[in-house]
Amino acid sequence: MTLSWTDKKILSQTRMEKAHEFLEDAKGNFREGRVKTSINRSYYALLAAARSILILCGVNPETHEGAVTMLSLKFVKTELLPLETIKTFKLLFSRRTDADYGDFDSADAADAEEAIRLASGAVEEIERLRSALLKQDKPYKNESEDKI
Questions:
Q1: b/e burial code for range 38-58 (CB count within 10 A of at least 16 → b)
Q2: How far apart are alpha carbons 124 and 127 in whole angstroms?
Q3: What gap in Å lies between CA 134 and CA 84, rounded to an integer?
Q4: Which residues lie closer than 8 Å to 100 by C-beta, 6 or more apart?
């Protein structure tokens, strides 16, 4: 199914709203002492933000790894997003995996607090770029991709 530019903008907005909702969930869970759930929600906030910007260039990855790969190719390689965004994505993915599937309680309040801080910064960075792309009011196309 091919989405129109209008549909991509709507889906992008929906995904970014979800990212902000997940960040609020992370903060609420942290306040209530549920650090593992807070880490989980921090990671998913960043994933939703990544998916919100990727859809603007017609990319809709089906896996977490696909999302980080495409975010890197489309926006980090082109220096529209800092490399730190990918490092944060990978770190939060690892911590989320440990929190969700680890057999031992290795996550603590400091880990959750850092996850919220890192996710918040990365989501803000993606939101700035997403807003700039939306102002152009046309699908994002990386001209250098034609040369690859």
A1: bbbbbbbbbbbbbbbbbbbbe
A2: 5
A3: 23
A4: 36, 40
Q: How many residues does the chain have?
A: 148
C-alpha separations of 17 from 20, 27, 34, 56, 125 in Å:
5, 16, 23, 15, 15
Contact between 49 and 126 under an 8 Å Cβ cutoff? The reply is: yes
Query: What pTM was estimated for this model as a whole?
Result: 0.93
As averages over each run of 10 residues, the pLDDT of the chain (148 residues) reads 89 98 98 97 98 95 96 96 97 95 86 98 98 88 53
Residue with token string 């880990």: 111
Domains of the chain: 5-137 (1.20.120.330)
